[in-house]
Each structure stands twice: as structure tokens, then as C-alpha cells.
Amino acid sequence: MKKITGFICIMVLAVMALAATAHAGERAGAFSISPFVGGYIFDDSKLPQRNYTQDRLLGGLRLGYDWTDNFATELVGTYLKVEDAATDDEHGMYSYRLDLIWNFMPRSVIVPYLALGGGGTTIRYKHANSHDGTANGGAGFKIFLNDNIALRADGRRIIDFQSDHARENIARNWEYSLGLTFVMGGRTMKAAPAKAAAAEPGGTVAPPPAPAPAPAPAPEPQPTAAEPTPGHYKYCITLQGEFDIDKAIVRKELRDQIAQVGNFMKKYPTTTAVIEGHTDNVGSYNHNMDLSQRRAQAVVDVLTEQYGIDRSRLAAKGYGFTRPIADNATDEGKQKNRRIEAIIDCAFDVQQVTPPERLCMSLVVDFDPGKAEIKPQYRDEIAKVADYMKRYTTTTAVIEGHTDNTGDAAHNMKLSQQRAQNVVDYMVKNFGIERSRLSAKGFGSTRPVAYNNTAEGRQKNRRINAIIDCVVNK
């Protein structure tokens, strides 16, 4: 019993030392391999086990499969040397069993579990082997060091139904172990970004410096940015509300903020919305992607059930910690990043509604290939932004320039920056907008909204966006 107590103490210290590592837990569909070492304590009240040396070193291997995040099965094999205390004779003991595992908090860094199973043991003597049936129950936990590797501690009570020739045929033994679990497959794994990007006005996140052009670029992603189509606007509302840790239940204070979205969409029934979930960087990429998706979906459910918004007008999208608007190095920054964004698509004249927190306009401004000069026919398009900012004089705006992937990355970054800057200069010169209220940002081809393998897709990617921060008295 002292050895078991010592083992538990060591595990507690391990948890304290590693609790700061933030990575994903179990994932459905994953296979696992878990080598381990530990000890085996025989029941000293039963024959023949009271004749064995009590605490023996064992080694073993578990092969597992996660049917769901919570439920898994494992095939387990172990080996140890049984020593007769009187004669010092040693005999090999093999055990084999099938275990059922129930994981608690499967998406956490530390995943506790309960185990129940059955199997058998074989002790190899010189002249004959002894075969016993076994049942076991116990508990343990895993500490995920990253998405694919976990430290694992396990303790079991082994009920040994001894062979018929044993005078006392039920023994109650102990097994404890420490090992590693290697997880393969399951939900698709993705690399997390190295660190949070700096935030631009209006919540737009500045990308890292443009990478050197690759000789064989990967296929471009599907559109992920909530950007308006020409003639539409994006009415953006940020909902800052705390969720319970690892939960997606909407609290009352957040429901009060959701009312802004629900009432707006009821007033304007042609609008649609994407509800975006965002987290801080505590936890792994996969865990936060899943958590942010569940939280966004919970907000969609509130809008549907309490405000009668048709589900066809709503979509939920979780971004995890990939789009921070503040520095995750501080508690205040983490709190800002734990947010819900309601991105409402508006097809009407946005100047007729109360200004939102943030407004995104997509301008139809066509540039000659490799050029950044603004043609006179696009004055009216740029006037949409200027007129709005003149009406609401406390607003500020970031003018974003985007290109297709024609040419190298460095050239496209420079070209997009110049095009955005020319739009800023045009608004200052022709519409009298103070330069201090405007800034330009070029993104090159890093944020496509369509595939670049067609002329139509490339045209969509050559665009100017105006991201307007609306700091007004409502």
C-alpha cells in the first residue's frame, strides 16, 4: 500500500508540472499505442499467491481505438516474472484482456477515465502451465503533451479466478502503471499558428510578413473571410460574453447581447448572418476549433428558438484561436479574443440603419494589370465609403488591398499596398476625409475569396475592402 501511495503522489506532481501544456484530448476514430511499465502486487491472503514476492515489475502494451470522444476499447498484454519467495524460482506470467474505457472531459489537456474489462493470465511452470480468468476495474488519466502524445497513469484492481487446483480460488491483486500513449488518425489534425497576429482597427488581423514565393504553392483554400459581395455590406456586431470553461451553454448576459442581432434580423428579414466563434490560445488547435464551433452553434440556436430567425438565414463557423484581435499574452487580451462575431449580410442601403460596431464594404474597383492608378469611372464606388464617413464623423477605416496570385508574393504585397494607399489618397483629395481617419493595408494574394485557377476567380480576388470602425453615439 505504501508503494501505491507513493505512486499516486508522483502522479499528482506530474499533473502539476505539466498542467500548463495546452493540447487536445481524445478524438473519435483515432487508434492508439500505449507502452507502459509498472508494478503488480499479489494478494498475500490467498494461496498460492502468498508465497510469491509481492511487488513485481511488469511491462506491457495497449492497443486502443476511440469509437467516440468518450468511449474506447483496448487490447492489453502484460508480462512479469513471478518469484517464489521460498525457492527464488521465477516463472513467466502473461496476461491478456479486453478493456472498455470511458473518458471524462475528453477534449481537455488532462483526460481522466474509468476502465472495466476481463481476460486471463498464464503462468509458465517447468512441467505445466496455469491458466486463470480475470476481471478488472480501475481508473487513470492522460496528460496530453501535444495532439498526438500523452503521458498516462493507470491503476487497476485485478480479480483473479484461480485454477481449480488452487485451494482458495479468488485472489484480489493490484496493478499500477505509467506510460505513453501515441495517438494516430481520427479528426483531421492541423498545425496551429506560431503566434497571434497584430490586430488592425476594426478587428481585422494583420497577417505575418509575406513568405518567400514557393516553387509549387499549395491549392488555395475555400473562401473563409466573411466578406460582402458587391452591392452588399457586412454589419458586424461583437458579442463579448463569458462561457463556462470548456462549455457552450449561453449565459444570460450574452443572451442580452444576442438580442441586438435577433431584433435587427427580425426588422430586416432579407438579411442573413454568419455567427463566428473565437477563442483565446489556451488549449490545442483542434480543441479550440471544436469549442468555438459549438459556441457559435449555441448562439445560432438561441436566435432560432427565441427570435424565430429561420435557420436557413444563419450559419455557424468556429475559428478557434486563428483570428485574435488582441495579444493572448495577457488576461485582458485573452478575454477580448474569447468572443462571438455576428456578421450580418445586408442588401439594402446601409446608410439608412443605425451604425454597427464595424462595417465592411466591398468596392468594385478594377485596376489595369500591374497598375495601381484609380480610373475616373470608379469615383461613385469610392464615394459610398466617403459619404458614410462624412455622415458619421467619428468613424475610422482601414482600406484593404487584395490581388490574385499572378506574379510573385513580394510583388503582390507591394501592389496591393499601393492600390489601397491610392484609394486612401483619393478619399482625402476628392472627398475631404481626414487622413488621420484612414489607413491602408495590402494583403497581396494571401486572402483569396475564390480560386485563382479561373479568370472569374482571379477577378473576384482583385478587390478593395473598406473596414469601417463605427465609434458613434447611438
TrEMBL record:
Biased composition (Low complexity): 194-205
Keyword match Transcription regulation: no
Keyword Membrane: yes
Region Disordered, annotated ranges: 194-229
Keywords from the UniProt entry: Membrane, Signal
A Pfam family annotated for this UniProt entry: OMP_b-brl
Residue stretches of biased makeup (Pro residues): 206-222
Domain OmpA-like residue range list: 230-348, 354-472
Residues annotated as signal peptide: 1-24
InterPro entries for the chain: Bact_OuterMem_StrucFunc (IPR050330), Beta-barrel_OMP (IPR027385), OMP_myx_plus_Proteobacteria (IPR030820), OmpA-like (IPR006665)
NCBIfam families tied to this protein: OMP_myx_plus
Protein name per its UniProtKB record: Outer membrane beta-barrel domain-containing protein
